[in-house]
Amino acid sequence: MNRALVALLAFAAGAVIPLYVEAGTSAETYRQLNLFGDVYERVKSDYVDEPTDEKLVEAAINGMLASLDPHSSYMNAKAFADMQVQTRGEFGGLGIEVTMENGFVKVVTPIDDTPASRAGLKTGDYIIALDGKDVVGMTLQEAVEKMRGPVDSKIVVSVKRDGIAKPFDVTLVRAVIKIRAVRSRREGNAIYIRVTQFNEQVDAGVKKAIVDVTKEIGADKVQGIILDLRNNPGGLLDQAIAVSDEFLNRGEIVSTRGRRPDDVSRYSATPGDLMTGKPIVVLVNGGSASASEIVAGALQDHKRALIMGTRSFGKGSVQTIIPLPNQGALRLTTARYYTPSGRSIQAKGIEPDKVVTQTPADGKPEDASQIRSEADLPNHLQGDGNGSEDSGPRSAEEIPEDRAKDAQLNQALALLPSLKVVDDKIAN
Fold it and tell me: Cα–Cα distance between 75 and 67 in angstroms, integer?
């Protein structure tokens, strides 16, 4: 496509920002861009405190994208780098899960076989300084960023531990740490797998979990699998497709449709079912979004799994990451996705086959008005008209740490032995 380089925005200092606009752009577009230039010039010259060009341009970009939908956004270089760490699922660090308590960083748990665990850090330890700098005054994110760094680099961590009078220093060497997005365990004769996000490690993690827990139970005794996607905000589309494919022998998994009629992509399953036809229950709630909904929708439409819990979040849009010359990136909504039966769940969500609500820890009825879904977000992308939007109550409460109080998981475990799979389709 031919583009004309047009210098449209004149600043007080006489500088210009060159903008690429399509040849044949309407006169109205030029007028609107000149209006932006006029406002920018006036702010630069007359605002009470002199703002930087970077701040104004970044704010203008964010404002433009926020007016489109809640998921399109601009990432500066730092935010883009952080996002890449999350999607890769690994980074240079120490291997501890932490929280902030009373101004100090508190160790929630050291991750097995990492520098932190090998050095003897324990749950409940307080980190009071990093390389001699007090953590008091730091945000949790700032402390975490300071603990991360190049692999094989050193950091001195000052620790306060209950029962020991004086703080002590531990010198740690950073190593490759993998974000643990997949957790699994045996539940009786069932395989329980929880996926907390869809990063690059998830498909491999799910396969390993199935193999490991199957060995523990015995292949001939495995009743089925519970795939827990509650409060999973999503992540990488290719990982959602790969996980769905692990349980399907054939058929479409998901399709995406963009702005133009020919902008359609379809993704289909390949032969092979890791569970060899055994029953599957997928747990979802109002915090299950995006990639989680792709998996739940695919398995539901093919009747390969029973979906249990409460209606999911309803994010049925696809964001493309577009790197920019300044090392930042643009996250832009470029398509809607559709389940195998052609459903768009945008602003609607996945309705479970069996609705099971989670009883709050305090026993009080949940205030549904406090739970937000995609349909509640300002400027949310509209659905495709295939069904009405629904901003009704969602349930995204915390999953109880006490397994005995997890009503949704307990119902799934109770129901699993009665489920049967006939011709790759689940029945009860």
Answer: 16
pTM of this structure? 0.77
Beta-ladder partners of 319: 333
Give the whole-angstrom CA distance, residue 104 versus residue 107: 10
At 168, the amino acid letter reads F
Closest to 210 in 3D by CA, of 280, 283, 261:
280
Residue 365 lies in a domain: yes
200: domain CATH number? 3.90.226.10
Size of the chain, expressed as the number of residues it contains: 428
Place of tokens 């500088």: 15
CA-wise closest residue to 268 among 295, 246, 241: 241
Beta strands in 143-209, from DSSP E residues, in sequence order: 154-160, 168-173, 175-178, 182-187, 190-195
* pLDDT at residue 367 is higher than 60: no
Q: Both 354 and 288 in a single domain?
A: yes
DSSP string, 24-57: T--HHHHHHHHHHHHHHHHHHHHSSSPPPHHHHH
Dihedral over Cα of 403, 408, 414, 417: its sign: negative
Verify that 247 and 197 share a domain, yes or no. Answer: yes
Which residues form the catalytic set?
Answer: 290, 301, 315
CB-based contacts of 332, cutoff 8 Å, min separation 6: 65, 72, 319, 320, 322
pLDDT tens digit sequence for 142-176: 888 899 888 999 999 999 999 999 999 999 999 98
322 class by beta-carbon count within 10 Å (0-12 exposed, 13-18 middle, 19+ buried) = exposed
Which residues are within 8 A (CB) of 28 and not within 5 positions of it... i.e. 6 or more apart? none
Residue 216 is encoded by which pair of tokens?
A: 């523990």
User: H or E element: which one contains 331?
Assistant: strand 329-338
pLDDT, mean of residues 402-417 = 92
Residues 139 and 68 in one domain: no
* Pairing of β 190-195 and β 224-228: parallel
Q: Strands, DSSP E only, in 12-151?
A: 16-22, 73-75, 90-93, 96-101, 104-110, 126-130, 133-134
Q: What residues have CB less than 8 Å from 12, skipping those under 6 apart?
A: 41, 44, 45
CA distance 318 to 299: 19
